[in-house]
Amino acid sequence: MAKELTKKEKPGTIKLGGKEYELSPININVMGYVEEEFDCNFSELQKVLVNGKVKEMNAVRTLIHILLRDNYPDLTINEMGKLIGMDNLKEVSDAVVKVLTGG
Questions:
Q1: What is the pLDDT of residues 31-55, one digit of tens each?
Q2: pTM of the model
Q3: DSSP-assigned letters across all residues of the chain
Q4: Where do the structural domains in the chain lie, given as residue ranges?
């Protein structure tokens, strides 16, 4: 599992509010942020998400913010959340999954 999540892939991009944002690739900062936010080892993230130990939309919002944090340190989670609606949630979620799985 950990090998899948740490593959070095070109990061994805997402479009929010008409602007392209580059998602960070998996690096030690991203892994640390995940461990802090979800209170689990990075390698256990999938298990935590699948087992429903976190609220789904909060988890998606947090993961997106983590992947944007290094490149856009001034973008707050609240500002980012306002740019994601039902019209782009699937596209954004798919991009996050792609980065996390190296797909």
A1: 999 999 988 888 888 777 777 666 7
A2: 0.79
A3: -HHHHT------EEEETTEEEEPPPS-HHHHHHHHHHHTS-GGGHHHHHHTT-S-HHHHHHHHHHHHHHTT-TT--HHHHHHT--TTTHHHHHHHHHHHHHT-
A4: 2-8+22-101
